[in-house]
Amino acid sequence: MNKIAILAGDGIGPEIVAEAQKVLHCLQQAFGLSAEFEHAPVGGAGFDAAGHPLPGPTLALARQADAILLGSVGGPQWEQLERDLRPEQGLLGLRAELELFSNLRPAILYPQLADASTLKPGIVSGLDIMIVRELTGGIYFGKPRGIRTRDDGQREGFNTLVYSESEIERIGRSAFEIARKRSRRLCSVDKANVLECSELWREVISALGRDEYPDVELSHMYVDNAAMQLVREPKQFDVMVTTNMFGDILSDAAAMLTGSIGMLPSASLDSRGKGMYEPIHGSAPDIAGQGIANPLATILSVAMMLRYSLDLPELATRVEQAVGKVLDSGLRTPDIASPGMQTVGSAAMGDAVISALQAT
Ligand code: IPM
Ligand code: MG
C-alpha cells in the first residue's frame, strides 16, 4: 500500500488538489492503484493551524510517506510575518529536510494549446524541454545570510552562493541520466564568466560528462544567453541542468512558452526516488476560492508521481492521455481560454479528466 501525503497548502492549493485527489480515487477504483492518503497543513495553513509553516506532524508525515502531493503555498495575509514563519519556508523546509535535491520541470506544449502561447506557433509547436533544477543548495540555502547594519549606519543585505563538488555531481548525474532516456543532449546553464561558484559547476559537470557520460552531448550556456535563447528558439533545448535560482527563473520562462503556467507539473526527488509533486505555479491568491483555477498542472503532477515514485508508468501515461483528450474536447479553464472553446471551472475540468480516464 502506497502512503501518499497530501499537503494542499494555501490559495488555490486546496481547490486544485481536490481535483487531483478525485483522479487518484478514480485510479484506485478503476485501475487498482493501492494507496492511502493523509492530509496535513503546510505554508500559511500550517502557520494558522500550528504556528509554523512546516508543523512537526506535517514533516513527520512527509518523511513516512512514499510520495507527497503538494498544492501551493503563500498569500498576502502572511507576508508581514518574520521570514522564518512565512509560508515559503514550509516548502523550502520540506525540500531541505527530505533532501529533495533534484527538481524536474518539464515544459511540454500540448498541440491543442499552441494558440495560448504568447510566442508564434512555429517557435513553440512540439516543444518538449526538461529543466533539471538543483533544489536544496545554492543561494537559496547558503550561509551566511541576513541583513546587517554597517559601521556607517547603512543596512546591507547579503546571501551566499555556494555549491560543493558533491552537490554539483549528484544533480549532474540526475540530469545526465534523464538525458540518456531522452535525446542524449544536455545543456548546463551557469554564469562561469563572472562567478567562481559557476566556474566550479562547469568544471565538475564537464568532468562527469567526460568520465561517465561520454554518450551524452554536453553543452554549456551562460544564464543570460539561456534566457534569451529560451524565447528566441526554445526547441534547440532538450534537457537543461542548472542551479537553484537560475532554475527558478528559467522554469517560469519555459512554462510561459507553453501558454500557461497552469499546465506544468514538477517532481522533486531524493537520491532514492522518493518525491514531492507539485504544480510549478504559485498559490494565485487573486483567484483563490473562485473555483476557476486550472487543476491540470496538479493532475499532471500526479502522473509524475505515478511514474517516478510509485513505479506505475502505464497509469502515468493514462492520466497524461486523459488530459490530452480533455483538451481535444475543447474544454479550457480561463487561463488557457481561447475563442470557440468552452470555458469551465476547476471542478468541471477535474470531472472531465475522470470521464476521459474511465473511457480508456
Ligand atoms: C518555485 C517557487 C518557490 C521557489 C518559492 C515559492 C519559494 O517559486 O517552486 O519555483 O522559489 O523555489
Ligand atoms: Mg519559482
Feature tags:
360 residues; alpha/beta; Isopropylmalate Dehydrogenase; 12 helices; binds 3-isopropylmalic acid; binds magnesium ion
Q: How would you describe this structure to a colleague?
A:
The structure is a single chain. With 360 residues, the protein is of the alpha/beta class. The chain has two domains: 192 residues, Isopropylmalate Dehydrogenase; 161 residues, Isopropylmalate Dehydrogenase (3-Layer(aba) Sandwich). The chain has twelve helices and 14 strands. The chain has a ten-stranded mixed sheet, sandwiched between helices. A two-stranded antiparallel ribbon has the order 6-7. A two-stranded parallel sheet has the order 13-14. 48% of the residues are buried. The structure holds 3-isopropylmalic acid and magnesium ion. The site of magnesium ion has 2 residues, from α9.
CATH architecture of the largest domain: 3-Layer(aba) Sandwich
Q: Which range does the strand content fall in?
A: 15-25%
Mean pLDDT: 96
- Which radius of gyration do the C-alpha atoms yield? 20 Å
Which stretches are poorly predicted, pLDDT < 50 over at least 5 residues? none
CATH class of the largest domain: Alpha Beta
CATH superfamily of the largest domain: Isopropylmalate Dehydrogenase
